[in-house]
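User: Hello! My lab partner asked me to get a predicted holo structure for this protein. The small molecule is flavin-adenine dinucleotide, SMILES included with the sequence. Please write out the structure tokens.
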Amino acid sequence: MEVQLEDPAQEIKRLRRCINDLTSLLALPAIWRGSEPSQIVQTLLDVLFRMLSLDFAYARLSDAFGVMPVEILRVAEDSKINLSAEEVRNMLGDPLAAYAQGSLPQIRNQLAIEGIAIVPAQLGVHGEIGVIVLGSNRTGFPEKTESLLLTVAANEASIGLQEARLLSEQKRISAELNAENQMWPVLTEAEIDRARPYGRVRRVEIGEILYRPGEVGRPCFVLLSVSLEIVQPTINGERLVTILRPGMFTGEAGSIAGQRTVVQARVIQAGEILEVRPEDLRTLVAHDASLSEILLRAFMLRRLMLIDRQLGNVVVVGSQHSADTLRLREFLSRNGHPFSYIDLDMDDAYRNLLDRFGIAVSEIPIVMGNDGTMVLRNPSTSQLADSLGLNDNIDNSSLHDLIIVGAGPAGLAAAVYAASEGIDALVIESHAPGGQAGSSSKIENYLGFPTGVSGQELATSATKQAQKFGAKMALARAIVQLRCQHRPYELVMNDGTVFFARTIVIATGAWYKKPTAVNLDRFVGHGIHYGATFLEAQLCEGEEVIVVGGGNSAGQAAVFLSQHARKVYMLVRAATLSESMSHYLIARISGNPSIELLCNTELADLEGESALEKVSWANKLNGEVRSVNAHHLFIMAGASPNTSWLRGRVALDEKGFILTGRDLPPVVDPDRSPVWPLSRPPFMLESSLPGVFAVGDVRAGSVKRVASAVGEGAISVSMVHRALAELE
Ligand SMILES: Cc1cc2nc3c(=O)[nH]c(=O)nc-3n(C[C@H](O)[C@H](O)[C@H](O)COP(=O)(O)OP(=O)(O)OC[C@H]3O[C@@H](n4cnc5c(N)ncnc54)[C@H](O)[C@@H]3O)c2cc1C
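Assistant: Hello! Below are the structure tokens for the protein in complex with flavin-adenine dinucleotide.
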């Protein structure tokens, strides 16, 4: 049968293009091998967009497929359809379900009314992986070749996605296996021999308790020929953590700093043990790099395991809607202290228990020792820190070479470099290590972490690193005054304690400015948040939430929260994000159907009885006011320096940031701050007080980024050395 072709040349050109397209589709697996499912879907839509002039492309992976939820809608910038991404999204409804229920034709008809034709394709033999829907208002869309291309693309993607899921499963299992071996390693004879000089061997008998929870400065025990049972005593009996065999060793993250133990160790098989005291343990890890790596990695993995399994020695009992409960949970999480949490709204038994003990509502939340030995009634953060012994080894009697105020990235970097270079360094932190970065769910632009790192992980590792070198850290303690009439300088803490320091590094960073919305203060802790960590995200599951701000911190929070909340409204005062946010984040936000970006918009009003219930905002250009019922509002709008305690002590700029080095005004106004007393010019990071340095966000002119804060913290130490040398 002969086929009459209208324009053979045209047809051949079309077929050639189709073959080219098929070839590039078949090449995709090589491109996306080893990629995450979301990257595979993104790449696929990018390629289909380039190939077929589409108006939109939509893809969604089914939750049942068992990977991170992926839903992407791309609408062509030059699209000729007059529908916004949100309208297309709403018209598509749930194509996955529609496919399964055979109701796709309704969607097709609805879009046809708008002059848009769609071609869907299932991912997976029975659509078990997901669905792709392409849309265009081009006449004759989809052509046969285009449907063919989509089918091929969908098949290739299905195979790629299956592989990606298997790979991540394999990675997870081997990581778990690996983690288990790294958490409870067995030292070789040679390694034990290298550890022997740092400890003393002694015999222990069955039933002997080597340590209980809450004991300070307990040794690390290397098991030569004994076995130990590690348990968590609770009022309901002991919870087994693990059994340690010969060749293994005790200890976890707190051991390096000599902090209190959180579990109990009992001998279950008699024999010999090597006992290494905390100060000798620090010497060992400072001198023996490979043993240090084995010990520190095991200690940190054990601490993470205790946190994950809620095997801590304290229990927080309180309502998830209470600001104080959130404050205590946040403090324990940010300080990496394992605890379990009882939500009073969900647990009648505990509520009756508290009633029986006559604990008044105002005394809730309470923090109890797991074994019932300690009961704190709505403790302040510093009371809790002291009861857990977090500041046990802080001695304010001695004169310190260096005191670092603030344990954000800048302060922690200064602590690591100072302590590793033999400077006796004390860090004083008003809340928890990590600072602003610690409240970031994922930092993606910090060097060396291509898949990003959570602020918490970064802070915990840096803290352990600083403690490994011997830096001391006082937590939940704020410096409220600097006395600088003479040297050594005196730093006064909020509990009146005075510390003496030869040199000081001020790394107190910044805190978020409050937008001028009505009732803001009324809802702080009752729906208003200044950070978006996993704790806050849990409270927002399936809800509509609002994020205020146009910087990276706001962008990250919106992207992170969109994985938990049903919808995220992002309110930005500026006309666009381009001036204030990194490009990768802008792309994430614009491609995310769960985030509605509202530029030229300001918070207007907040309503609610005891907690936030409704949020209103206004468009600055047309005055239009909108509001939604929402219980959670995230404020990330502009920062102010933490320098109120330094007014009149060091030179500050008009916004209160600390002036240093060449930025110091030549002739200082004596009323505003002291005159520079030395003949040499101030060092680059030196404030108007000799030997007092400022690093990170608190410094005038600093780049408000983690990497630069770390950089400044590190280099300040070389100047501290020179300032100390001047005092000799
Ligand atoms: C949510 C969020 C996300 C971010 N994401 C990124 C990102 O992806 N990439 C990036 O490069 N940057 C990011 N940033 C910015 C980055 O976190 C900051 O630039 C960095 O943390 C500054 O470090 P710092 O040590 O100077 O100050 P801070 O981090 O502000 O730390 C200062 C510390 O000092 C303590 N302190 C303050 N006053 C006192 C006092 N009187 N006594 C004792 N302690 C005190 C505070 O509690 C705090 O822990 C983000 C910021 C936020 C808030």
